[in-house]
Specification:
It is a single chain. This protein is α+β, with helices and mostly antiparallel strands. Helix content is 47%, strand content 15%. The protein has 5 helices and 3 strands; from the N terminus they run H-H-E-E-E-H-H-H. Strands 1-2-3 form a 3-stranded antiparallel β-sheet. Helix 2 packs across helix 3, helix 3 runs parallel beside helix 5 and helix 4 runs antiparallel to helix 5. The relative contact order is 0.18.
Length: 163
């Protein structure tokens, strides 16, 4: 009985009122008509899926849309992403994804600055089965960035031959 109480209090910690609030209010939920890239991340373990549409002006996100069919943790992470992604650089987004992975998998500190809200997901580190759904939006955003960068590098003009 004591173990069940401990597990329930642990669950209360990860499914706290702030997580519920974030999950209930996910901005930028409409998909983009003409995205520069679209990417979908799926968790086989729980069935959660996050699809993102991304437009970038140079190396900075100029527009974003998403479809989130995920658990509360995936929804909360997607909500925080949508609140901060426009105006973020590709490098910043890769960095915040790396910090999230390190926070969950290696006991690293949570992201800070404008991404500080992600600290609400820190208790998820104790629930390995929940890591994948929490990280879906980061995986999808990074995949979309890579697609845009690959497209742009293949469209780059050939350098002029040395004379």
């Amino acid at each position: 009985m004591m173990r069940l109480k401990t597990e329930m209090s642990d669950l209360d910690e990860i499914y706290n009122p702030r997580i519920l609030e974030l999950a209930a209010n996910i901005p930028l939920g409409a998909r983009l008509e003409r995205p520069h890239a679209t990417a979908t991340a799926h968790s086989k373990l729980c069935g959660s899926t996050v699809s993102v549409d991304l437009n970038m002006n140079g190396g900075v996100v100029s527009d974003y849309g998403q479809s989130v069919k995920a658990c509360l943790l995936g929804q909360a992470a997607s909500s925080i992403m949508a609140r901060n992604v426009i105006g973020a650089s590709a490098d910043e987004l890769r960095e915040v994804g790396a910090k999230m992975r390190k926070m969950l998998k290696q006991d690293g500190p949570p992201p800070n600055g404008k991404w500080k809200d992600l600290e609400v997901l820190e208790p998820v580190r104790d629930f390995r089965a929940r890591h994948a759904s929490t990280l879906l939006v980061f995986d999808a955003v990074e995949e979309a960035i890579a697609e845009i960068e690959e497209t742009r590098s293949s469209e780059a003009p050939e350098p002029a031959p040395a004379g």
